[in-house]
Here is the input.
Amino acid sequence: MTAPPEDVEVGVDRILTVPNVITLVRLACVPVFVWLLFGAHHQTASAGLLAVLGATDWVDGFVARRWHQVSTLGKVLDPTADRVLVGTAVISVIVVGAVPLWFGLLTVVREVLVSAAVVLLAALGAQRIDVLWVGKAGTFGLMCAYPTFLLAHGHAGWQHPVEIVAWLSAVPALTLAWIAAAAYVPLSRRALARGRANRMAAG
Here is the structure.
């Protein structure tokens, strides 16, 4: 016997799940990163923490899928954490001077546009859009590049090769991020149309 549709997503309204806790821990580490960089002036330690936060971006999603703990809150919280982490990292690294201003601005503008679009679509009643893998790949690449830029900031001989590695990650990652932003345009139109159709049907 086929299970009713409502049984397909049992537990999606849960709040206290392991993936959500992981995401909240990552968010709580953002102020620690800022303090390490600007308060304690530990550039290497702050770069290391930022690298860990970026590298663990996939953990909450993996746990949610592997142990069937996908939740509505998690679907909102995870990309929000990504936006906060990327935004804070980019602005901080720009302030330090570890990345060219043009590259940092291209990253920030993309994040602002995507975040504003999410808020606007929600206000207009559009259906929620799942995060695209190309966007996640771009975010992951940027979260690898920015701590590497930070680690490479200085005049030591070993830092120049590290900067090259940062650029090898940064350019493809930013390209993927903008490709994802463009891909969200038609998806947003369809989500908005579906949201309107659902409201009309319910009415």
User: Anything to note?
Assistant: Residues 1-8 have pLDDT under 50 and may be disordered. Residues 159-202 form the longest helix (44 residues).
